[in-house]
Amino acid sequence: MLQKWIRKMQFHIGMLAGIPMAAFFLSGCSSTELENKSFPLAVLITEKDGQYQACYLSQQLSEVANERADGGNMTAESAQGSTYYETHKTFEKNNRCRLDMSHTKALIFQKDFMESDTLEVFLETVRQENTYARNTLVYLSDSSMGQLAKLNDSLEVPLGSYLEQMTENERELKEQAAVTLGALLNEQENADRTLLIPVIQEENGLPAVHAYEVLQNFESMGRIRTEEAQIYYLLAGQLEQMDVQLNEKDQVRLSHLKCRRNFIMSADGVTEQVMLTAEAERVSGRVSEDEIEKEVKEKIERACRVSRQLQGIDLSDSRKCLAMLAPEVYRVFGERAEEYVEKLNYEAKVRVKEISG
Fold first, then answer.
1. Rounded CA gap, 353 and 258, in Å?
2. DSSP 8-state symbol, 248
3. Which of 214, 244, 173, 179 is nearest to 307 (CA)?
4. Gap between the Cα atoms of 173 and 271, Å rounded
5. Is 191 left (phi over 0), alpha (psi -120 to 50) or beta?
6. pTM score, two decimals?
7. What is the pLDDT of residues 62-84, one digit of tens each?
8. Which tens digits make up the pLDDT trace of 241-290?
9. Separation of alpha carbons 79 and 56, rounded Å
10. In degrees, to the nearest 5, what angle opens at C-alpha 108 toward C-alphas 106 and 114?
């Protein structure tokens, strides 16, 4: 019995003695691997005259563990090639390192990326190579790569982290409103919904969203202003609250927003009835429920009508609802998207309950 106990203790002591040595070798391998990697927090991509160009805004190795560290210790390295894959590999060859996209927060395309099939080809490459996380945020930019690289150096946090924080801290929008790489990949396969890609540019030394690029049925439909985007998010159920400025003095905040739809088909086309209910809290001034309802009704109808007439955009993204909510309309227009939008009219009914504010 005593000998058996001694052998058991010797075994455990040997195991404990081996742990530091094993940890040494494991940490040594990991350290070597990290030193040969680059960790972009944001990737800027453009395509011109058949050539891709990418700029990788990477964080130095000592800062990788702290993804929201100060904006210093950043590098901006560029590469180009005839395809994105070639661009990716050219960067790795020139910098003698491997790109690791596991920390990438944002993909930022230059505006010309939407003017051809460049986006579609890029997404096919990403799907095959599986290089990015699907929750990577997606933006367009009107600022040049050079401007964004300089902006990255001047911010208190890296540009990729700044955009992530800006999205997380957006009180008005729900989480699902953010366009991610996964949403683009899904839309490329299904082409059955509308996505708004935020367009950023530098304003007073900070990145700011000033417009939205509309992807409808995976086709670029042009841009809309933030005012129209707000109505899209409202009708899509992706708005937490909505600030409404009636005039210089009167402002209210709507919350508990609930939206229902109804479709009426006639010889002239289809009328989409939007029924919105909300609670209204006065921010400033004094305004009646009737005035709030009238203002919101006009905002909804005007934004939808202008987007349809000028750009052929169904801002309410109603076509995806037809099969379930209006099967008779779907039987007529289900495969005729352009004709459906041309004959679509909007009618809003708004009911608000005022609460003390």
1. 12
2. S
3. 214
4. 27
5. left
6. 0.83
7. 455 555 544 456 788 889 999 88
8. 999 999 889 999 999 999 999 999 998 899 999 999 999 999 998 889 99
9. 9
10. 135
